[in-house]
Amino acid sequence: VGFLPSPVRAWFESSVSEWNLPSSVILEKQKEDWVEKFDMEKAKYATLCPLQGIVIPKLFGELGYGNARALLLSDISGACLATPEGALLEIADFRRMLRKVLTDLPQFKVLQEDIKLDNFHPIGDKIMILE
Asked: Which domain of life does the protein's organism represent (predicted)?
């Protein structure tokens, strides 16, 4: 599917979405009394739609889980920068990758507010952001 031209791929993914789910997904459940934060996060995913799967996880949608709402997100894998496995980068590569990801967000008038190392995951030659 990834090799199809963009318009054909978009049509295919919207028509047969169950074929396009990855083998591993993340279910981010709304915490009690965090309705506003959950709604804000969902709105951020909508605003950052062009960056989904590139800079941030892809949002597949909202669903009910137990008595709460939840977001179904792609699993980006990789170790976070807060762990030894995730911190094995050359300084120059780290700076380049971090600068790239932190300049992509403001283009959409969004800032990364939670700058903890465990929200940043090096994946190949880029860093992806959680939260």
From this structure: Eukaryota
